[in-house]
Amino acid sequence: MDPFSHKVAILSLSRRVVLMTVSTFCCCSLLKHLEPTELLFLLQQDEAERGVPQEELPGRGQTHDAASHHRHIVCAETQVKGMRYLFSAVTSAVGSRGWNRRHFWGWLNAVFNKVDYERIKAVGPDRAASEWLLRCGAKVKFQGFERFHHDYNGLPVGPLGKYKIQAIDATESCIMYRGFDYLDGLKHVEEIKFNKCIYIEDACLERLSSVESLQESVVTMEVVSCGNVTDKGIISLHRLRNLENLFLSDLPGITDKQTMVTRLQTALPRLDVSLDLD
Asked: Which of 28, 53, 103, 251 has the highest count of CB atoms within 10 angstroms of its CB?
């Protein structure tokens, strides 16, 4: 079979068939003929190819009950397991093409951050945002809860829109700019922590501070060990009108901390800035 026929064959398969293929060798022999964009195609099939009928997903014309929640959880966990399998297969298949592990994870993390606007409409901004954050390795705390949730199985089940995100801990997560549209519509987030987030950059902080609802709700922020953040990104946080506490540490991109702090506190007189930048 020529390379083009290989491509047609694999792109005609559903993601479930590809990811559950018994023969790793067969899967790899097909995958090595695909370009990254074509591999991405396999991860962007619609919900019908995930094993859960679209009408059975939570929020699609139904209440967000325990049964539909369970189906969505199983669906999500299957995708994650499948992606891990796909990573193993692709790493083996494309190694000779110079596509290393770091590049693949960067590409896969971008897939995790792809915004599903239909999902936001179906289950509401808080639920959709929590799924995005957990998918990327972050944690969320809802109003009325004392602990953070870090996996799908721990997400509370209830009526649509009942649970509101109060705090976000994105420590060591892979959230990136392309996923920040999930923040639109969040009205109750009081605390945000970015710690060792390799994809957080100035554009992310600027995007966050442009969300009108967050401008009103965010009170506490922490930005630690995010190497791509500079003075520009931190200064953009002055748009968070109710920000009272800001902790900054291990940010090598900060070049003029005194000017940065002055500009922040001029715009936000109540802001307490704690620095550990030496």
From this structure: 251
Whether CATH 1.10.645.10 fits 124-278: no
Nearest to residue 192, comparing CAs of 262, 66, 213? 213
Best CA proximity match to 191, nearest among 210, 170, 212, 174: 170
Beta bridge pairs of residue 201: 228
Using pLDDT thresholds of 50, 70 and 90, give the confidence band for residue 199.
very high
Q: The tokens 């705090």 sit on which residue?
A: 167
Tell me the sheet residues that pair with 275: 248
Contact 76, 15 (CB under 8 A): no
Q: Which of 79, 69, 71, 77 is nearest to 53 (CA)?
A: 71
Spell out where the chain has E strands.
139-142, 165-169, 191-195, 220-224, 245-249, 272-276
Q: Can you give the residue ranges of every domain in the chain?
A: 1-112, 124-278
For 123-162, the pLDDT digits (tens) are 999 999 999 999 999 999 999 999 999 987 788 888 888 9
Q: Which helix (H) or strand (E) holds 269?
A: none
- Give me Rg for the CA atoms of the chain: 21
159-180, pLDDT tens digit by residue?
888 999 999 999 999 999 999 9
Compute φ and ψ for 264, nearest 5 degrees.
-65, -50
pLDDT at 207 over 70: yes
